[in-house]
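worker-3 :: picked Class I SAM-dependent methyltransferase
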Amino acid sequence: MSDADLDTQVAYWDAAAATKAFTHPVHLPWLDGVSRHAAVLDYGCGYGRTMAVLEQRGFDNLAGVDASSGMIARARDLHPAMRFDVLDAPPTLTVPDAGVDVTLLFAVLTCVPGDDAQRALVGELARVLKPGGLLYVSDLLLQDDGRNRDRYEQFAERYGTYGVFETGDGAVCRHHSSEWFSSLLAGFEPIDTRRITVATMNGHESAGIQILVRKPASPHRASAG
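worker-3 :: tokens ->
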């Protein structure tokens, strides 16, 4: 598997699209100050679960993108009135610079094992965000149980990063240290962080983290960070 294939895993997600369930919660108080007409982009939207939560809360300018055509097909079946598109060359978006008010990145980084690929993805989201726009990340932390520690050790040499592992059904996933998230999001202004407990797509209760950051309002502030 090439590095590009590893960091998208389209074949896996197309095959899994009909059966996987995602559970990361949306902490709605973080979005209380956002206009219900704000442009919201859900990157790695899967079958549209998170977008449906926001639509129920009155958000009316939602768009979802995913590299998996299978996931997008399921999303369109479940939510025919919403906008969903397949990413042709992830992480590249067809959105213009500074065209989005809020970007969501829910349980996506765990599916992108490589450091460089994660940096490229976050950089692309920064490009499309308006100055002062929000990035809301929800993902998984390194776990401290024996099952996870064993597989981190098993696959660390193969993938070059502690926390990357293969699942029994063929995915390559990554759990992260909190320090990595701080480094990855260093170009943004931190707003809030919360720890969560969430079921993974394969049903294992796991420690997660949610992070809300803001794109700096000026290039000077961004470079200073």
